[in-house]
Amino acid sequence: MAGEHSRVGKMLVFGAGNVAYSMVPALQAVSGDRGVEVYSRSERSAAALGAAYGVEWHSGSWMPGGAYTVCVVAVPDGAVRASVERLEGDGRLVIHMSGSVPVMPLARGMSGVMYPLQSFAKGERSDLREVPLFVEGQDGASHDAIFALASKISCKVRTLSSAGRERLHLGGVVVNNFVYRLLALVQALGKGTGAIEVTDYEALLKTTMQRGLSADGGSRQTGPARRMDVETIGRQLRLVQKEFPRLLGPYVAMTESILSASKDEELSKWR
Amino acid sequence: MAGEHSRVGKMLVFGAGNVAYSMVPALQAVSGDRGVEVYSRSERSAAALGAAYGVEWHSGSWMPGGAYTVCVVAVPDGAVRASVERLEGDGRLVIHMSGSVPVMPLARGMSGVMYPLQSFAKGERSDLREVPLFVEGQDGASHDAIFALASKISCKVRTLSSAGRERLHLGGVVVNNFVYRLLALVQALGKGTGAIEVTDYEALLKTTMQRGLSADGGSRQTGPARRMDVETIGRQLRLVQKEFPRLLGPYVAMTESILSASKDEELSKWR
Question: B165-268 sits in which CATH class?
Answer without folding.
Answer: mainly alpha
